[in-house]
Batch of 2 targets.
Target 1
Amino acid sequence: MARDGERAERIVVIGLGRFGTSTARTLHGLGYEVTAIDIGEKQVADASGFVTLAAQGDGTDEDLLRSLHVEQSDVGIVAQGESLEASVLATLVLKRLGIPWVVAKAASDLHGELLRRIGADQVVFPERDAGTRLAHSLAVRQINDYIPLTPTTGVAKLPALPHFVGHTLAALYRDANLPLSVLLIRRGQTLISAPADEERIQVGDELILAGSDRAIDAFANGREQPA
Ligand code: ATP
């Protein structure tokens, strides 16, 4: 992203499937300078409307990447994960070009380990993560977002439900009757970090809380459950 007086960060995205396309589009919308590369003509034509530069070619071809000045990128994203060989080679080439932060998409745990060993700075598992988030969001249906910490605990983003409004956190904790912590409340543009137990929830607040799934569930449903 471009901060005042600084150049926009440059990001190269290799592979324009659903994951690569949505990543490239979002990054461009956030103000990054995005170069997108795919071997498919159609994928490149589609992306040309929403990235800085869309180029057709093999993302493992070092000469092609150099001709596109990819070595000047701050971040490289290997967004194609179906072909293990292409994913490994593209990651290796991006690191050889000296890109400081390379993110690669893995299709399996072993694939992820391989990517890390050859130098990927970050490995993402979009399908696995989406499945985990969906499973947790069904357990606590009101949550907007969820980061798992262990198989049964996590950090959840929850809107201020109608039965929260006007109540203090202490009262809501009491109703949940299980240990958990509200880490942050977003109230409009204001962030209230580590809110006091006396903090009263207002309409439109958003809460970030951490605890076991059972505690989060009890907190969300506290006043709707029979005592
Ligand atoms: P998604 O789940 O994101 O839709 P996918 O699993 O359908 O992805 P992938 O095999 O991960 O498909 O490929 C995503 C894109 O990467 C495709 O558009 C494909 O043309 C492109 N691609 C595959 N190999 C290369 C390569 N060597 N260089 C550049 N692009 C590639």
Target 2
Amino acid sequence: MSADCLFCKINAKEIPADALYEDDQVLAFRDISPQAPHHFLVIPKKHISTINDIAEEDCQIVGHMQLTAAKLAKQLGFSQQGYRTVMNCNQHGGQTVYHIHLHVLGGKPMGWPPYQETLKTPIEQ
Ligand code: 5GP
Ligand code: ZN
């Protein structure tokens, strides 16, 4: 647990969330600001700040996050139509909460590419 981490606080039930699934490794809950008819997040119980911080020993957990996403998409009834899973990393990826989370978006067709024209120019390093 990282003291100032929003998602660690959600894992610890210090901040409420609309949970969909929980086990000893992951928690899934609805995004507070949904960007699609279905939008939930799957997070690990372990604090991992970014994709860059995933260690060999975390590979099973990260795979379990993806499998949880697929199982919930099926349960919620949108797996056959399809959906998008996204994990943003750092500034260019659009990450705002520094505890890894898999976004699961569904219930309508997703756009591609996943950025706006105005953001095509690389941000200054
Ligand atoms: P990121 O931009 O880091 O990829 O995604 C962070 C996501 O967390 C955003 O989609 C945002 O709406 C969601 N979020 C931020 N704070 C909260 C919160 O307190 N509760 C829930 N359920 N979602 C949150
Ligand atoms: Zn955390």
